[in-house]
Amino acid sequence: MIRRVVVVLLAGAVLAGCGSIKLSTAMVRWAHDNAFVASSKTLSVDANHAASALRSPSTSVNELHTVCGVLLLDAQQANTPLPTPDDQATALLNGAYENLAGAANECYAAAASPLKRARALALLARGLAKLSEGVARVAVASVP
What we know:
Four Helix Bundle (Hemerythrin (Met), subunit A); 81% helix
């Protein structure tokens, strides 16, 4: 009886090992399948473009609506493939995308309000910092 239990447990352990995939392999596959590097670069460029527009008092309402609308769209698209295979990367990226989307919404409504422009800039800074951390975590989790 004990012998059968041991054999069943060993067989279960062997079968469980067969179906597992390394975190690094899963992360590389996730990043590739979701064009993560390109998406992150695009989002960073959009955020910097929005920051430049927000810093310039001469930026028109239409210009702000355009750059902020693009940022919001790209932040939402970047968020779509979450979660990643790594919980820490998912949390960092989710926070980044939330901050950047929030910044886009604040930016869209900023127009002639220096206070709203300042809030949008603060959210952009937090979002970019978290995006940087998320990109670094994806890179670390991708190392075999």
